[in-house]
TrEMBL record:
Belongs to the ABC transporter superfamily. InterPro entries: AAA+_ATPase (IPR003593), ABC_Ni/Peptide_Import (IPR050388), ABC_transporter-like_ATP-bd (IPR003439), ABC_transporter-like_CS (IPR017871), Oligopep_ABC_C (IPR013563), P-loop_NTPase (IPR027417). Keywords: ATP-binding, Cell membrane, Membrane, Nucleotide-binding, Transport. Pfam families: ABC_tran, oligo_HPY. It is a peripheral membrane protein. GO terms for molecular function: ATP binding; ATP hydrolysis activity. One of its GO terms (biological process) is transmembrane transport. One of its GO terms (cellular component) is plasma membrane. It is found in: Cell inner membrane. It comes from Rhizobium loti (Mesorhizobium loti). SUPFAM superfamilies: P-loop containing nucleoside triphosphate hydrolases (SSF52540). This is Peptide ABC transporter ATP-binding protein.
Length: 321
């Protein structure tokens, strides 16, 4: 099954002894079958919180408001059993640390058999054949031998491939990869990007890629959402974001991208200032304290998400359609 995904007015807060952390605030996103969506923003801006909410894997101290629908069904209205069914198999998350996806004491082969628990029509031998084929598809040549390995015996890049294979074995309509290349060196990173590019050719579901690395997003995605301090501040087609960014934060993020500098710099430019305290988010625009274009209303009135073109939106008082 493939379907469209829509999150609307989605907010998540984490309850902590120091108060509630407002990690996600009033986020609207949508994605359609065949699309690759990028989520980009600085560390701590809520990217993992957003995708973990979509996959229904938020920790126990998280409180969620707003709605998430998949294939026209409001997921909050499903009973717990159908939620688990949909979000375990139909919506698959490859998490930021692939090691956490695996049980250290079971072989890769045994774990990948378990990932196919929904395929009651297949016997163990058929499941193992499916695994071997899937490992081949993610670029693991000696699949039979690798199935005998334990997770710690694989390199980081190989673990990430296996995690992607594991997610694909559930036949998901929505595949989410949270920072799929962050833990890897440059060569491995290029290989995983190549793999994701290959996958998108014959996959007709939705792929969501989370990264703070602009190059990864530019290479893989059709549409991009830029997040800042728990909000989506700009969204649009990849060309619009990279060549006609309108929000001052997106512009600043692009200006700091190391790929723009052909010579090696001793110090990369950074955006002055730091993320606001998410236990007390500012009442106006979240970016105003760091924005060189801020004017009177910015510090008191939160800007709405304005539509600039068909798919291009930005949340900024200084940007007009
Ligand atoms: P990174 O790029 O570093 O992965 P991110 O954009 O994925 O960052 P999140 O992990 O979603 O950001 O975190 C958003 C905010 O929520 C941060 O301030 C973080 O400290 C906080 N946070 C995340 N998980 C929890 C939790 N379980 N309890 C309390 N606060 C949390
Ligand atoms: Mg994260």
């Amino acid at each position: 099954m493939t379907g469209s995904l829509a999150a609307s007015d989605l907010s998540v807060r984490y309850e902590t002894p120091h108060g509630a952390v407002h990690a996600l605030r009033h986020v609207d996103i949508e994605a359609h079958p065949g699309e690759v969506i990028g989520i980009v923003g600085e560390s701590g801006c809520g990217k993992s919180t957003l995708v973990t909410a979509l996959a229904n894997l938020l920790p126990a101290n998280a409180r969620i408001d707003g709605s998430i629908s998949y294939n026209g069904v409001d997921l909050a209205k499903l009973d717990a059993y159908h939620q688990r069914l949909l979000r375990g198999d139909e919506i698959a998350l490859v998490s930021q640390d692939p090691m956490t996806a695996f049980n250290p004491v079971l072989t890769i082969g045994d774990q990948l058999v378990d990932f196919q628990h929904h395929r009651k029509d297949l016997g163990r031998a058929q499941k193992r054949a499916r695994i071997a084929a899937m490992l081949g598809r993610v670029g693991i040549a000696d699949a039979e031998r690798r199935m005998q390995s334990y997770p710690h015996e694989l390199s980081g890049g190989m673990r990430q491939r296996v995690a992607i294979a594991a997610a694909l074995l559930t036949d998901p309509g929505l595949l989410i990869a949270d920072e799929p290349t962050t833990a890897l060196d440059v060569t491995m990173e290029a290989q995983i990007i190549h793999l994701l590019r290959e996958l998108r050719r014959d996959y007709n579901g939705i792929i969501i890629v989370v990264s703070h690395h602009l190059g990864v997003i530019a290479e893989l995605c059709d549409r991009v959402y830029v997040m800042y301090a728990g909000e989506v501040v700009e969204g649009g087609e990849v060309d619009a974001i990279f060549h006609d960014a309108r929000h001052p934060y997106t512009q600043a993020l692009l200006a700091c991208d190391p790929a723009r500098f052909h010579e090696r710099l001793d110090r990369l430019p950074t955006i002055p200032g730091s993320l606001p305290n998410l236990t007390q988010p500012p009442s106006g625009c979240v970016y105003a304290p760091r924005c060189d274009r801020a004017f009177a209303p910015c510090t008191t009135v939160a800007p709405p998400l304005a539509k600039l073109a068909a798919a291009h939106v930005a949340r900024c008082h200084a940007v007009t359609p």
